[in-house]
Amino acid sequence: MFWYRNLIKLSTPIKSKTPITKNLLQASLSHFSTANQPPASAQAQPSGLGPTKPHDKPRVVVLGSGWAGCRLMKGLDPKLYDIVCVSPRNHMVFTPLLASTCVGTLEFRSVAEPIARIQPSISSAPGSYFFLANSTAVDTEHHEVHCETVTDGTDTLDPWKFKISYDKLVIASGAQASTFGIHGVKEHAIFLREVHHAQEIRRKLLLNLMLSDVPGLPEEEKRRLLHCVVVGGGPTGVEFSGELSDFIRRDVHERYTHVKDYIHVTLIEANEILSSFDDRLRRYAIKHLTKSGVRLVRGIVKDVKPENLVLTDGSEVPYGLLVWSTGVGPSPFVNSLGLPKSPGGRIGVDEWLRVPTVQDVFSIGDCSGFLESTGKPVLPALAQVQYRVGPKLCIN
Ligand SMILES: Cc1cc2nc3c(=O)[nH]c(=O)nc-3n(C[C@H](O)[C@H](O)[C@H](O)COP(=O)(O)OP(=O)(O)OC[C@H]3O[C@@H](n4cnc5c(N)ncnc54)[C@H](O)[C@@H]3O)c2cc1C
């Protein structure tokens, strides 16, 4: 089965999308199944990992490879459990350093750790696997997770559906960037949550620096290309704005002297920047950002167009690079689960991180929160918090 595991982990492109590929995949997934094999007539049914047998190790299925899920997998003993991780990415992202990769202070590989390094059994133990897929539904009655392979940007396979039976399920699928339904955000802005976002930001920044230097380009267009706009004055937006202004002061002023006077950073925030922080810290951040040339604008974005955004007061802000960082909320996957919810729409858990209405289901990380009945506050969406809940669940 090794060839198959390597295939999904590395997403090695296969040139032709022939039925042979599909048949092989289907055959391989059926082979995983320890349940009764379906008759040939039922071939259209998704195959997968069937229920474990009484003498097998219990199977822990972890949905997500972020701070919470990876910390949990790291702490699980593969001698006691088979570990199966389902996630659309095969690495963990060290998010606090992501902003530094956008401007080249750090390289991308410095902030991404392969899951197989965090929990080696996942790529070596016979019953443990990593599947590059999104979980799409959870059938708590039959102890099954429904999944669909990730095929973004490849023509390797059509999305492939399969099921995994679990003995214990841990939902750690994180949160999703909020857009508040504002038109044009998804199409024109770049989020800052994944390594590919940071790569896109760096590429666009450098491209705009180059393009703005071509002869004959109108002044106005030059200014637009080099106007970097960050929406959202929370910790990520503030940190990224700071990184950008450092990059401008250190690198652009030294290496792109032709255009150095055209490049600017604007940070747009509806309320106060760093509103959840102590007043002293907030004042320090404002002073520091202003001193380093970041323009702070109080405003609410109502529309995003390809080259400018519109604020509710009607003013238009042209941009060459737009980074969107207005906080996070529950993902469509979490919204779709028929599980109890905590305030804010996260999956509701008790003090032991169990989803109390169903058996053998736990939830950790940004996708979960304590139920109101526990009397505990919903924990903040922070890596520091999620890194601690992983070991707590291992102990439970
Ligand atoms: C740029 C940035 C900087 C940050 N800086 C800090 C900081 O300095 N300090 C701090 O404490 N916190 C920081 N945070 C917040 C911190 O990163 C999050 O709180 C933390 O990542 C949450 O961990 P998690 O495991 O719950 O979710 P995530 O780390 O978001 O992981 C979720 C995982 O689930 C996967 N997934 C999503 N949907 C599905 C699905 N349907 N099926 C299966 N898998 C799925 C995702 O691909 C991902 O692997 C920062 C966040 C960002 C974006």
From TrEMBL:
<feature type="compositionally biased region" description="Low complexity">
    <location>
        <begin position="37"/>
        <end position="47"/>
    </location>
</feature>
<keyword id="KW-0285">Flavoprotein</keyword>
<protein>
    <recommendedName>
        <fullName>FAD/NAD(P)-binding domain-containing protein</fullName>
    </recommendedName>
</protein>
<keyword id="KW-0472">Membrane</keyword>
<dbReference type="GO" id="GO:0005743">
    <property type="term" value="C:mitochondrial inner membrane"/>
</dbReference>
<dbReference type="Pfam" id="PF07992">
    <property type="entry name" value="Pyr_redox_2"/>
</dbReference>
<keyword id="KW-0560">Oxidoreductase</keyword>
<keyword id="KW-0520">NAD</keyword>
<dbReference type="GO" id="GO:0003954">
    <property type="term" value="F:NADH dehydrogenase activity"/>
</dbReference>
<keyword id="KW-0999">Mitochondrion inner membrane</keyword>
<dbReference type="InterPro" id="IPR045024">
    <property type="entry name" value="NDH-2"/>
</dbReference>
<dbReference type="InterPro" id="IPR023753">
    <property type="entry name" value="FAD/NAD-binding_dom"/>
</dbReference>
<feature type="region of interest" description="Disordered">
    <location>
        <begin position="34"/>
        <end position="57"/>
    </location>
</feature>
<keyword id="KW-0576">Peroxisome</keyword>
<feature type="domain" description="FAD/NAD(P)-binding">
    <location>
        <begin position="59"/>
        <end position="377"/>
    </location>
</feature>
<keyword id="KW-0496">Mitochondrion</keyword>
<dbReference type="InterPro" id="IPR036188">
    <property type="entry name" value="FAD/NAD-bd_sf"/>
</dbReference>
<comment type="similarity">
    <text>Belongs to the NADH dehydrogenase family.</text>
</comment>
<keyword id="KW-0274">FAD</keyword>
<dbReference type="GO" id="GO:0005777">
    <property type="term" value="C:peroxisome"/>
</dbReference>
